[in-house]
Amino acid sequence: MRNYLKSFKTLSNSEIDLFVSKVTFKKLDKGDYLIKKDAICKEVAFVVSGIFRSFYYSSLDEEVTYCFTFSNSFASAYSSFLSQAKTAENIQAITDVELFTISRDEILNLEKSSTNWLKFFKLIAEQEYIKMEKRIFILQKESAEKRYEDLLTNQPQYLQLIPLNYLSSYLGITQRHLSRIRKSISN
Predict the structure, then answer these.
(1) 3-class SS at 48?
(2) Residue 43's closest CA among 72, 74, 18, 2?
(3) Strand ranges, E, within 33-181
(4) Distance between CA atoms of 168 and 143, rounded to whole angstroms?
(5) What is the pLDDT of residues 109-118, one digit of tens each?
(6) Would you tell me the crossing angle of helices 144-154 and 164-171 to the nearest 10 degrees?
């Protein structure tokens, strides 16, 4: 995590040490939740290892997976974190996950202490926004085959760990269609 923080170049070593002193290390088992629907998000997590999936329930009460969070990424029900309103999403570990968490109160205290923290958290929010925008564009613009190829290119080491029902939901297709795509790509 220390190397990740250094990559932003907005924080001094003492600020990084301060941040590290504020985080809590946690382990979640496969199937555990970082947050569930109707809870209020009080923390942000940095995933050290493992995979989370974010999902919501459709009007037909079906699970819709809209995001996977991999190692070296942040995870949070961010709208709830910002607004302190109940979340509509669930964030579930689909593998065992190791993570660091930091509370909303600690983040707000850090932001008050130095403009460097404001810059740092702004950069994180911007990066997360860019990832979300890319996901929306790919979902709206590209075919299911292209979306699968994007995952294959950017996260190949994780594809075998994601159950097909979650993967097909994420891609917006049926499991049958996903099987056809996988077969055509492997040929």
Answers:
(1) strand
(2) 74
(3) 33-35, 43-49, 52-57, 63-69, 73-75, 90-93, 97-103
(4) 13
(5) 999 988 888 8
(6) 120
d(CA 6, CA 23): 16
Q: CB neighbours of 98 closer than 8 A, spacing ≥ 6? A: 25, 26, 27, 47, 48, 49, 50
* Unique residue bearing structure tokens 């974010």: 54
| Cα-Cα end-to-end distance for the chain | 39
Question: Which has the closest alpha carbon to 98: 25, 22, 23?
Answer: 25
DSSP assigned state of 94: S
Write down the number of H helices and E strands in the chain. 9, 8
10-41 tens-digit pLDDT: 778 888 888 889 999 999 999 999 999 999 99
